[in-house]
Amino acid sequence: MGFIVEAKRTGFYQELTEEKRKEYLSLTRSKFLPTIDNLYFNVFIMNDKKGVLEKGTQISNLLNNLQDKKDEVLTLREPLEFAHGLYLTIKSVGMYNICVTESDLYDIFFCKTLPNDDTPRIQIQLRALGLWTRGIDEVMVDAYKRVATLLSDYDLTIERVAENRIDYCYHTNAVSSPNKIFKETDGE
């Protein structure tokens, strides 16, 4: 069973039964990523290029519908359902200024204007809660399928997907006083 060496030195670790150690501290128990806060990946749409937003194209129809719903969200100041159980929110990240979300699991960001042909139209942020409770495979596949389904509503398809960024966490908000609980012992 894989445990971080420092975890074995804590009073908290010493107080747990072997079964509870595996449940709370094992690095391999559920094949999920307990030290990943967020994982980002990019989605490229087939035949999507800079300047392709002429009126009447499938991509422009999708982006215009997203923008119209975002305008409603800005007026009402609350998320609204867009499609397939995804809610449009006012979140944005840089040039990715339209966001649909599966709350607490992932955010799907859209860019209206591409600066160049190498920029993806969609960026997906897999959130910590989903990664920790459901596992990376389940959350990533769910997000991918939702994007593919949403795009298919507009006769668009995914060209490729690429990993973008991983945010690591070295903290926990679930423990009120980590310095006390995870304090190293002197071998008593």
Give a brief description.
The chain has 188 residues and is an alpha+beta fold. The protein folds into 2 domains: 1-33 and 174-188, no CATH class; 36-169. The chain has helices at residues 5-8, 11-15, 18-25, 58-76, 128-133, 136-152, 178-181; strands at 36-45, 80-83, 86-89, 98-102, 106-110, 122-126, 158-168.
Describe the protein's architecture and organization.
It is a single chain. The chain is α+β, with helices and mostly antiparallel strands. The protein has 2 domains: 1-33 and 174-188, no CATH class; 36-169. It is built from 7 helices and 7 strands. It has helices at residues 5-8, 11-15, 18-25, 58-76, 128-133, 136-152, 178-181, and strands at residues 36-45, 80-83, 86-89, 98-102, 106-110, 122-126, 158-168. It has a 7-stranded antiparallel sheet. A hairpin with a 3-residue loop joins β4 (98-102) and β5 (106-110).
Features:
188 residues; alpha+beta; 2 domains; seven-stranded antiparallel β-sheet; 7 helices; 7 strands; 23% strand; elongated
Helix-strand layout with pairing:
Elements: H1 5-8, H2 11-15, H3 18-25, E1 36-45, H4 58-76, E2 80-83, E3 86-89, E4 98-102, E5 106-110, E6 122-126, H5 128-133, H6 136-152, E7 158-168, H7 178-181
Antiparallel strand pairs: 1-6, 1-7, 2-3, 3-4, 4-5, 5-6
